[in-house]
Design goal:
Blueprint: H1 2-6, H2 8-39, H3 54-77, E1 78-79, E2 82-83, E3 88-90, H4 91-97, E4 109-111, H5 112-121, E5 127-129, E6 132-138, E7 147-148, E8 156-161, E9 165-167, H6 180-186, H7 192-219, E10 227-233, E11 238-241, H8 249-259, E12 264-269, E13 274-277, H9 283-295, H10 306-313, E14 324-330, H11 339-378, H12 398-421, H13 428-458, H14 466-483, H15 485-507, H16 511-550, H17 565-622, H18 628-659, E15 666-670, H19 671-681, H20 683-688, E16 692-696, E17 703-707, H21 708-725, E18 731-738, E19 742-750, H22 781-791, E20 795-801, E21 804-812, H23 818-869
Parallel strand pairs: 16-18
Antiparallel strand pairs: 1-2, 3-4, 5-9, 6-8, 7-8, 10-11, 10-14, 12-13, 12-14, 15-17, 18-19, 19-21, 20-21
Amino acid sequence: MKRFVYSPGGKAVLLVLQQVLVGIMVLSVCFGTLMLMKGGDSLFSGQGKYEQSTQFDDAFMSGVYDTIWLTDYKYNYETDGVYNPKKIVDIEDYALNGRITGEVTRSIGYYLEDLVKWGRQGKENESYNMQEAAETTDVDGVSYSSATASKTADDSVTVQTEQEYYKFDESYAPVGDVSLEEYLEQHPEINPSKMYGYLSDAIDNAYNGVEQYKWNLAKYQEDKSNLRYTIVNRTTGKAYSNISGISNTAEADEAIHSIRKLGAYIYLDSVSLNFEKSPKSNIDSFNKALDQAVNGWSYMDSRVTMENIYRNLNQLSALAGGDYTIAVGVDTSYPIHDGFYESKIEYEQTRPWFQALMYGGLISLFLYIIVLVALTVVAGKRADDEEIHLSSVDNIPTEFVLACIAALGGFVVFAAVMVLNTMYNVRSLIILSAITVSILADLLLMAGYLCLVRKIKGGIFWKKSILGWFIGTLYGGVRGIRSNVRLLVSYLGFLLIDFLLALFMIQARSRFSLLLFGLLALGFNAFVGARLLREEGQRSAIMQGIQKIRDGDLDYKLETGSLKDDNLKIAQAVNNIGEGLQNAVADSMKNERLKTDLITNVSHDIKTPLTSIINYVDLLKREHIQDEKISGYIRILDEKSQRLKQLTEDLVEASKVSSGNIALNFEHLNFVELINQTTAEFTEKFEARDLQLIENLPKEPVVVRADGRRLYRMLDNLFNNVAKYALSHTRVYVDLTEEDRSIRFSIKNISEHPLNIRADELTERFIRGDVSRSTEGSGLGLSIAKNLTELQNGNFEIYLDGDLFRVTISFVKAEVKREEREQEKNQAETQEKNQAEKRESKQENKQENKQENKQENKQENKQEEKHEEE
């Protein structure tokens, strides 16, 4: 699991999971906020009811607002409880006080139905003249500061004063035979603009008020609404209610008493100063509803005070100047399917979803934090090591990353505010857009966050910052100044001379002086530039010399005759480094040569007596000694001497191969044929340990350019390694694959001993997988195989996974002509036939050897028994 989490695929899965959680959280916030706006805090409660919700409270207070206005509408538009279209409206009184008494008391009156019709069809030919005509006067000697004068034929001027003046065509006449224009002519003391304004306001108020009156009257009928209201003016004895059968104050009091028994109600009595409310109703919302009923939608002080409530209600026409009682309630059994009933059903369906979204959002937030911690832990790490791996993105300056994160954070906050402000008009497209933008923003934020995490883990948070670079550069400059005062003095001198020459050029009063100082400045800067170019050329020559020495030309020497100052010191140091490296290489080659000579001489010295031992052992074997005890000694001497001979040869060859002191004869070889030859020779060894060989070789010849003898020795070492160290009764896999321009050979097996060692250590000299060294190996086979592979331009790799051991060798594919391929194919077929014949003969020899081995085993057992008796 840990390996998967640290892998690129695991990190990608964590990022995808994180974006899914972001989508769930955004969805929960959007829908949860929308539901919370409708349902209020009661959605959080385990026992929250619809009547305790903000949704019900808003609907109830809206009903209160409507009924208060409806009462005022009834007062204005009805006569004896019936709508009266012929009711006379005094336009000034109606415009200023919002009151219709049915009489003309202040200015001029219109019929209510005429005003409504006028408002429905619009005020035709309406014009707004911003100037009012004044008296005509003589223009000579008169100054008009705030008027516009125009001269006529009789040398008179009409002055238009800048006063607002409304006038439009009268579609309907006032009550009586006099029009508004005639009325204004008869009463010059009245301002025409104000009167036309009163008429315009009366038309708008009458049309809108009657429309709203009819709408509320139909909406809150007794048989169409669960809301009940009764409002009584105690002074006039007039009652307003949607409950039928109310004709006097006593019946109104009975209706108020029944309303106070409903599940939700508000009761207000101005006589007893008694204010009641049903449980959990919001007084502040009631006060706001009253304020809206009196003053429209403009917001005022919403503090809950009885004085504020009474002051607002006293401004209504129906209740002004008297005592009153108000009772508004809702039948919470909801016998009528109105808006309250539908809102209740919606609330009950919404509440479980809100709780599910709330818990889902909280769980998603918790999981998001866990995933964020996991990404923080695995940032910059891989499964194969514990080091911190940085990417090219981490080289971006830290301040830029922080600025991007801050900008994205600000954008997310701004987008969240915009979405929350449009929650009531939310649509699926807005939610999908919010989810998409949130996911993209989170991906960018995570990219910046993980970049900062890797910077901190890698220790480059400060180093890769602009501030860190600036401070480091400043510190390095100061430190450099301390070590190179001459450079600082030269630079300051250059600036001073340039400044003085520029100052002289500015102060020059003649062209000659200007030209003189200009030439001096040009010459001085040209001299400095030439010196800098010469310095740069010398440094380039030094760099070329360093590169040649780096490439192996240790005899290269820099010319120091034309160099001066620091460049001369650097060149001399480079020459000394070249000489030192040359001496070190010479000493190393001498030591390696001495080591090889030592191994060769010691091996040769060992070979001479070893050859004698082997020869004398062979002579003893030919004597046919009958004593079984002595025969056993001779057999042991033969085995050990042969092993010592093989070890000596391996040691000499390993020394030559590692030093490159061997000659290679490259030729085109059929790799498949060479592998078949090797497997045939190791068949008996594999069968002796019950190792099943599984080959996956191409049928066509695979040509490689190599030294046949060295390539065979490499394969022999690999197969011999398997025969010695592979676990008995297991399989050995040999594969040869041909790619576009390379050939890959691999052999893998299960090790008999635990491989508690690194793969690269197995190719070192005298290193064996058998730590106890109980087998006959020398620890040189894999080292020789690797060196031979690399000498033939191949690649040698060892892979360990538990007890699985695999060697992979790759060579560049050789290009062979078609005729050569056919010839090699025929040779391969002939070789296969020969191999088959050899296998058959070996099988026959094997049967004979088994019988001989049985007899020898019997003799050895007898000999061992005698030896034990002695």
